[in-house]
Structures are given as C-alpha cells and as structure tokens.
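3.2 Worked example (two chains)
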Amino acid sequence: MKTIAQQLNIKSFPFEIHANGNVVYHENSDGYWVKREYDANGNQVYWADSDGDWCKREYDANGNQVYWENSNGNWVKREYDANGNKIYFENS
C-alpha cells in the first residue's frame, strides 16, 4: 500500500498535514509515517505509525489524562478529584 506522500507524488520531505494547529500526519523520505488524532480540546487521543505501533489516550472534562494504552499491552489508569489532584493510579 502506498503512503499518502507516494499517492500524492510528494518529493519534498518532511511532508506534514496540519489541522487546527496540530500535525495530524507526518512522513519522512524513507516512507516512515505517523498519524495523530486530537479531541476538541487539542489533547492527542490517538497515535499510530508505519511500524504498527499505536497509543490511545483518554481525558476527563478538566483535561487530565485518565487512561493510556499502547500497542505493547501497557496501560495506565488515573482518577482525579474536583480540584485536579490525582487520587488513583494503576498500571499494567
């Protein structure tokens, strides 16, 4: 499967696609790429690359990261009180 840069016949690298001030796609001249997704608050919620690695994140209404998981099977859970103080932590 061709990368986005290959499909568009891009010859100048690094090639990037931006949305709302964030880099959502980055590709270098070797064909290595990284895709990112962001929530409405600008928090990165997903990341994946051409090597098959990925990472997911979840945030609470205050922007605190409450969950993190990656393609290696690692994960982290956190909880915060109303003042933003971490009250719970657990990981794999």
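3.2.1 Second chain
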Amino acid sequence: MVENDNKPMIKGYFPLGEGRGIQLTVWNNNLQLTRSEKNLETGKWETKQEINLAPAVLKELMWRIPIILDKMGVKEKA
C-alpha cells in the first residue's frame, strides 16, 4: 500500500483562549503550525500565521526544548 502524500499523518489543535488557537499538522516532510483567530465581526476563522518546520529543524529543536523551558521557568508537574 502506498502512502498518500496529500493527507496529513497527524492533526491536532491547541486552544489559546477565546477565539484563538494553533493547529498542528504533521506531513511526511514537515510540521506545520497554523495560528488562527476568529473574526468577531464575521464569525469566520482567519489564519494569522503559518510556520513550516523541516525535519532538520525539528531535530535541532528537539534537544533544545527542555533547556528553553527550563530557562523560561516552566516546571513539569509530577
């Protein structure tokens, strides 16, 4: 069976408060983060920012994220 490159492997959504959120989409060759906000006048969701991260960038971020979170003072809950 051949994988369809036009379909995402994983999709997720993280709400950021009323009318705001980030959609996460994992494709076979990149991670896409789309920040969107709901237009209060029209009621439609609008894309405000889109970031695509290649596997090479994700590998560089992977080991740095715990350090960044530590610097930001974010502690894991046991």
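3.3 Remarks
The first helix runs from residue 55 to 71.
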